[in-house]
């Protein structure tokens, strides 16, 4: 796996490394190197060398640096020139989209050079302006052009069979927050859907929430917001035979309705369920009440497998252990009333 060094003035590198871990989970062979006012160029160079020496992988190293031409840049540039490693690569203009893209890419890419080419575009696409009309036309993200090019020229006649006529559910998740950083980056890269479908009656009828979710779409992936009835219809529509969909549910009750309505969910990821009155905290990401527990048991009875983790890098938790804890906590809550 390609190693990564983040180098910056002050604690920017440390902060962005922490932000990246919030979204993508803990990362191996990533180091933050900071330049403080009491340090000279040689001190920074020594810290950079120490960072690389701490990695298991030292032949393929990607350096993300905050500014072109400043001290961190100069010291990394010196290392690239003097150390003689063919696959030590530097990219400047460090930002969070760039780092998240690199974390995803290094799961499959074997060289720093290959990752650098990919993150270059992502780093630029991550710079946006709201309202959009203030964006220079030439600065609009490539994803917008790709989406326009991919738009169908006309409606596909009803009854048309595309592919094998069955929608492919590549990932299904319950998450109170629906589409956010962890989903738009880590899970999208892991599951590789061509569409994200948010399945919620409430959000589908709330134009503001619907618009905000669609605007959060990751580059190159279409996002739709539909009520539960609609996703059940889509699951039976042969026109979606070539669709590879990620489904996001706000509650287990919505997921159960979809499954009972014929949506072919074989595995269900439990990512986040917010705490509210009457619920008990089961894990650091899940809170449940009795209705939730009963709903999960109904889903399990239909042969659905559970994957309990926030991000792909996390170790999956045992469904039986999580449900047992929920039942115990709910029983204790009832006894104390």
Automatic annotation (TrEMBL):
UniProt keyword Kinase present: yes
Subunit structure of this chain's protein: Homodimer.
Pfam families registered for this protein in UniProt: EIIA-man, PTSIIB_sorb
Residue ranges constituting the PTS EIIA type-4 domain according to the UniProt record: 1-127
Enzyme Commission number: 2.7.1.191
Cell location: Cell membrane; Cytoplasm
Catalytic activity: D-mannose(out) + N(pros)-phospho-L-histidyl-[protein] = D-mannose 6-phosphate(in) + L-histidyl-[protein]
Keywords: Cell membrane, Cytoplasm, Kinase, Membrane, Phosphoprotein, Phosphotransferase system, Sugar transport, Transferase, Transport
EC class of the enzyme, as a word: transferase
Function: The phosphoenolpyruvate-dependent sugar phosphotransferase system (sugar PTS), a major carbohydrate active transport system, catalyzes the phosphorylation of incoming sugar substrates concomitantly with their translocation across the cell membrane. The enzyme II ManXYZ PTS system is involved in mannose transport.
Domain PTS EIIB type-4: 165-330
Predominant localisation class: membrane
InterPro entries in the cross-refs: Bacterial_PTS_sugar_comp, PTS_EIIA_man-typ, PTS_EIIA_man-typ_sf, PTS_IIA_man, PTS_IIB_sorbose-sp, PTS_IIB_sorbose-sp_sf
Stated name of the protein: PTS system mannose-specific EIIAB component
């Amino acid at each position: 796996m390609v190693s990564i060094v983040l180098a910056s003035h002050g604690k920017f590198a440390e902060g962005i490394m922490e932000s990246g871990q919030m979204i993508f989970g803990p990362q191996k062979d990533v180091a933050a190197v900071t330049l403080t006012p009491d340090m000279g160029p040689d001190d920074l160079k020594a810290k950079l060398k120490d960072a690389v020496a701490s990695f298991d992988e030292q032949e393929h190293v990607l350096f993300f640096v905050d500014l072109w031409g400043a001290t961190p840049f100069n010291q990394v540039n010196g290392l690239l020139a003097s150390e003689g490693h063919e696959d030590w690569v530097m990219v400047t203009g460090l930002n969070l989209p760039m780092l998240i893209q690199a974390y995803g890419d290094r799961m499959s890419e074997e060289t720093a050079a290959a990752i650098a080419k990919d993150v270059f575009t992502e780093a630029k696409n991550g710079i946006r302006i709201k309202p959009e009309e203030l964006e220079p036309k030439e600065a609009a993200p490539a994803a917008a052009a790709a989406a326009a090019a991919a738009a169908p020229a006309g409606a596909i006649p009803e009854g048309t069979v595309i592919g094998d006529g069955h929608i492919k559910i590549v990932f299904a998740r319950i998450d109170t927050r629906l589409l956010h950083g962890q989903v738009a980056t880590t899970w999208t890269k892991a599951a590789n859907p061509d569409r994200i479908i948010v399945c919620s009656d409430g959000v589908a009828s709330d134009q503001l929430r619907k618009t905000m979710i669609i605007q959060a779409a990751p580059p190159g992936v279409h996002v739709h917001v539909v009520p539960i009835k609609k996703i059940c219809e889509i699951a039976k529509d042969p026109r979606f035979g070539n669709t590879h969909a990620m489904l996001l549910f706000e509650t287990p009750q919505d997921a159960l309705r979809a499954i009972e309505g014929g949506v072919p969910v074989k595995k269900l990821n439990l990512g986040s369920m917010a705490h509210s009155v009457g619920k008990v905290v089961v894990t650091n990401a899940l809170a449940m009440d009795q209705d939730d527990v009963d709903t999960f048991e109904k889903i399990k009875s239909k042969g659905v497998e559970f994957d309990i983790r926030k991000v792909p890098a996390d170790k999956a938790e045992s469904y039986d252990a999580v449900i047992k804890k929920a039942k115990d906590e709910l029983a204790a809550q009832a006894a104390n009333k």
